[in-house]
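Continuing the batch. This is chain 6 of the set; chains 1 through 5 are on the previous pages. Same settings as before, nothing changed between runs. Recording input and output for traceability.
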Amino acid sequence: MKNIILSLIACAFLFTACNQKNKQDETTNPETAKSSSERYACPMHPEITGKKGEACSECGMELTEPISKIPKTETKTTIVASETKPVVSSSFAIDGIVSNYLKIKNALIKDDSKGAANATKSIVAALNEAGTNALDAKLKKKYNDIAADAKEHAGLIGNNVGKIDQQRAHFAMLSKDINDLIKTFGTKQKLYQDYCPMYDEGKSGYWISETKEIRNPYYGSEMLSCGRIEKTIQ
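Output for chain 6:
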């Protein structure tokens, strides 16, 4: 009788242990399945997805960004106070400045150091010839501050023929000045603000472009399509 009782206790113990293992398997298996089916995106081209470690078809970088970690956009209704922008006289325009900036950008896209240097003469002339007399004192000061910095970096691009890396570093600063001019004074041109997260560790890789197609002025033929559109201007 004693042996029968001991056998029953042993069976009950084995049954309980087996049950716990099955429950454990049920909780871990979904995690394994989830891990194997999780998709990853390229850090530079988030629209390109696949398995972790696969190469991006656009730039060749590994897919490392888990899609599940990309926060979902929630639709919220908020009331935003309207931003008061300074009134700019219709007789004042920066389109000539922007057009000459684009010539520098396009030369750097082609790895054309001499062409970029030559194009700086036109942008400096355009910055000097802008009709600031139509602006009030506050806007005139703001323009002069931005223009002074832009002329400095344009000049350094012009003085560094054959040193395209240095030209590109000053082009990044010039791009910031042009962006500030556009934000302050507006433009009639349809433009795009592009961004390369690879350049300068992602700190200053912005530029203005007239086309939707990505053509990278910071790397030229080395990584021509590296980057993305950050926003459309106008």
